Amino acid sequence: MKKVRVALIGAGYIGRLHAEALRACDGVEIKVVCDRKEDVAKKFAREYKIPEACNVAMALGERLDIDAVVLGVPNKYHAPYATWFLQRGKDVFIEKPMAISAAEGRDIMAASRKSGRLVMVGHMWRFDVETQHIRDVVQSGRIGRIVKTRGYGIH
Q: I need a surface site. Which of 11, 89, 90, 149 has the fewest CB within 10 A?
């Protein structure tokens, strides 16, 4: 099975969470970490044993050895980066929120459809063991029935 080769963009708090998650996946290889502060990217790369670090994200768009990008950047950059990478044939994972406006969200989806590449909007807690347990308990009916009303409520 071919590994998905990933560029991790952003070496801050969220980047660390994604690096840990990606390292736990057998089918994933983190090829490069990028941060606007090159010294931060290099330190991050050493810590997570990532072979390459850089400080110019857009330089990664044309690389044939990268299949996907994980965006761990401030929200205002989600749409510009996602759209740009999709247009260059990369799959994109964006931590929530997808964009800072509905128009930007539509731009991302249009770029995804046109390129045929995937976009995933994540929420790191969605995959936590605790969150999965709560979902399972709710779905089992053990805490009652959740019904849709004019407001919200558990009955």
A: 149
Cα–Cα distance for residue pair 99/24, rounded to 1 Å? 27
Geometric angle at alpha carbon 60, from 88 and 4, rounded to 5°: 80
Cα atoms in the Cβ-side hemisphere of radius 13 Å centred on 37:
7
Of all residues in the chain, what percent are helix, strand and coil, respectively (each to 5)?
A: 45, 20, 35
pLDDT digits (tens, 9 = 90+) for 121-130: 987 666 677 8
Average pLDDT, the chain: 90
Region of poorest pLDDT, from 41-45, 142-146, 150-154 = 150-154
Q: Which of 115, 119, 72, 122 is nearest to 91 (CA)?
A: 119
Residues 100 and 108: beta-carbon distance below 8 Å = no
CA of 74: how far to CAs of 49, 78, 138, in Å?
A: 24, 7, 33
Query: How far is the CA of 9 from the CAs of 17, 83, 133, in angstroms?
Result: 12, 14, 30
Compute the distance between CA of residue 100 and CA of residue 122 in angstroms, rounded to an integer. Answer: 15
